[in-house]
């Protein structure tokens, strides 16, 4: 390990490999390892949800909080796959059947308190330090950690600088104004220049107005966030702080996402036979017979992801020779719409409802293209897996998708730099045109091979981005 330049406490609600609902977990879990060679020592504070409790039960206690919204909280320290984890064990808040944010009846009603507790403990550890470990920077991720920089501001920072990272501005952590005192926030903070938001409290806004720096997960999303179409009501707040806003593109974990390490079907840009074998295996497994490009979708099924556009574009794509495998889960009406397509186009379209990490790997190995028709996309990871696996991304030109995929325009093809197909706006017309373009490109083997080669040569690891975070931490530390 390089000499230590500084210490960072990362505060988040998800972290791979312990708990994941989306890309946030991937990023929080990848940062510590990416920063280590640069001399930044990062620990990650997350809640000890029910599924984590057996794992952390025997870890040593490094912090105790007597009064944590109705019970006591203990911070247990351990290491998981090289990541230093601080697990906040507070059974009255986190030991529940369900997801991190929802139970059978929807959102947990005490989510404001549950994540205020996480942020409170994060701010206290940052301010006071653990025995032998005092952070220079607190790095808060999304609304669940938004109160952490606010607590540093309102209860004393102890020389610690703070960064607020927006992974998705659609989730703003709203709480009723009546909770102000309960959330340990001063009356003075309840104004529109601080954390008041439409008559209530936004825990994300609290972080945005108090953190020393704001980052988001791609340069394009950083610019989009200041516009009403993407800022979701917080555009003014971000624009006002434009001088401290920075977009740092996510990377992907290239140890986990690597076609060379995929066992039976391993392949590389120089030896692609494994990819063809993986495609054949997928076709057998799902009973598909697709003469043209086999496209995959691996996604949460929500409005954000544009899954509702599939019924409008898939019939033409299938008529042109294409096929689609969809893996995902989410809104029942979107799941239903995709299932309906699979029934109509049996042998060409198939869907697996659910979350399946292993299958997602096989899809990237065997697919020809990955479709990401998002309405907004702060960064997006699946288009980067696509690049790495030579599974050509077809993406809406928004956020991180626009920053990572080079459209196969005549100019880009001529210059030999194209890596995928991009389209705008996110609607069925443009998406349909992009799929026609995909069919054309796939029908020209030389062109296609070049596209695949370019895609696989793209650097999508963490090196550049980790250096940007390291630079940022060095800039703001006291
Ligand atoms: P978001 O965080 O908005 O969902 P990202 O593209 O940043 O979007 O990250 C999504 C992550 O979740 C990726 O690692 C993707 O492979 C994974 N993922 C999404 N849905 C599924 C699924 N049904 N099965 C397996 N992995 C999934
Ligand atoms: C959010 C965004 C996604 C991004 C991920 C990690 O879930 O929706 O675009 O890649 O966070 O930053």
Structural notes for this entry:
The protein is built from 19 helices and 20 strands. The chain is of the alpha/beta class. The chain has two domains: 6-251 and 463-476, Rossmann fold (3-Layer(aba) Sandwich), CATH 3.40.50; 259-457, Rossmann fold (3-Layer(aba) Sandwich), CATH 3.40.50. The strands form four sheets. It has a nine-stranded mixed sheet with strand order 3-4-5-2-1-8-9-13-14, sandwiched between helices. α10 (273-286) crosses α13 and α11 packs parallel to α17 (428-442). The mean pLDDT is 97. The structure holds adenosine-5'-diphosphate and alpha-D-glucopyranose.
State which percent range the strand residues make up.
Answer: 15-25%
Number of helices: 19
| Beta strands, count | 20
CATH topology of the largest domain: Rossmann fold
Instruction: Please compute the radius of gyration using only Cα atoms.
Output: 23 Å
Question: Which ligands are bound?
Answer: adenosine-5'-diphosphate, alpha-D-glucopyranose
The level 1 CATH classification of the largest domain is Alpha Beta
Q: Into which percent range does the helicity of residues fall?
A: 25-40%
Largest sheet: 9 strands, mixed
Shape: globular
Number of domains: 2
What is the CATH-assigned architecture of the largest domain? Answer: 3-Layer(aba) Sandwich
Query: Unreliable runs, pLDDT <50, ≥5 residues?
Result: none
How are the strands of the largest sheet arranged? 3-4-5-2-1-8-9-13-14
What is the fourth-level CATH superfamily of the largest domain?
Answer: Glycogen Phosphorylase B
């Amino acid at each position: 390990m390089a000499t230590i330049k500084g210490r960072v406490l990362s505060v988040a609600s998800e972290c791979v490999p312990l708990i994941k609902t989306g890309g946030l977990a991937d990023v929080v879990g990848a940062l510590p390892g990416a920063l280590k060679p640069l001399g930044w020592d990062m620990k990650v504070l997350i809640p000890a949800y029910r599924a984590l409790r057996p794992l952390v039960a025997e870890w040593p206690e490094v912090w105790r909080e007597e009064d944590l919204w109705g019970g006591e909280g203990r911070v247990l320290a351990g290491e998981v796959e090289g990541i230093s984890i601080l697990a906040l064990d507070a059974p009255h808040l986190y030991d529940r059947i369900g997801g991190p944010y929802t139970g059978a009846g929807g959102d947990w009603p005490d989510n404001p308190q549950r994540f205020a507790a996480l942020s409170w403990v994060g701010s206290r550890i940052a301010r006071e330090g653990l025995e032998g470990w005092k952070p220079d920077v607190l790095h808060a991720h999304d609304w669940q950690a938004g109160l952490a920089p606010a607590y540093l501001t309102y209860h004393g920072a102890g020389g610690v600088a703070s960064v607020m990272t927006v992974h998705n501005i659609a989730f703003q952590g709203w709480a009723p104004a009546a909770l102000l005192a309960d959330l340990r926030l001063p009356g003075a903070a309840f104004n529109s220049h601080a954390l008041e938001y439409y008559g209530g409290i936004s825990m994300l806004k609290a972080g945005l107005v108090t953190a020393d720096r704001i980052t988001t997960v791609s340069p394009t999303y950083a610019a989009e966030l200041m516009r009403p179409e993407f800022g979701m009501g917080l555009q003014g707040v971000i624009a006002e702080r434009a001088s401290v806003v920075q977009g740092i593109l996510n990377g992907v974990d290239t140890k986990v996402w690597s076609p060379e390490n995929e066992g039976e079907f391993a392949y590389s840009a120089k030896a692609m036979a494994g990819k063809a074998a993986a495609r054949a295996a997928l076709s057998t497994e799902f009973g598909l017979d697709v003469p043209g490009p086999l496209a995959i979708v691996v996604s949460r099924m929500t409005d954000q992801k544009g899954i509702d556009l599939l019924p409008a574009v898939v019939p033409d794509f299938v008529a042109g020779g294409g096929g689609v495998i969809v893996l995902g889960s989410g809104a029942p009406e979107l799941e239903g719409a995709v299932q309906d397509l699979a029934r109509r186009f049996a042998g060409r379209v198939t869907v697996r409802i659910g979350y399946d990490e292993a299958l997602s790997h096989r899809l990237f190995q065997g697919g020809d293209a990955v479709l990401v028709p998002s309405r907004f996309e702060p960064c997006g990871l699946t288009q980067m897996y696509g690049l790495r696996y030579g599974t050509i991304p077809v993406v809406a030109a928004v956020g991180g998708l626009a920053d990572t995929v080079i459209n196969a325009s005549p100019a880009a093809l001529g210059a030999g730099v194209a890596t995928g197909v991009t389209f705008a706006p996110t609607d069925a017309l443009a998406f349909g045109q992009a799929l026609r373009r995909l069919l054309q490109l796939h029908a020209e083997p030389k062109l296609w091979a070049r596209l695949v080669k370019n895609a696989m040569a793209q650097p999508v690891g963490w090196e550049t981005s980790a250096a940007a975070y390291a630079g940022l931490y060095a800039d703001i530390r006291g």
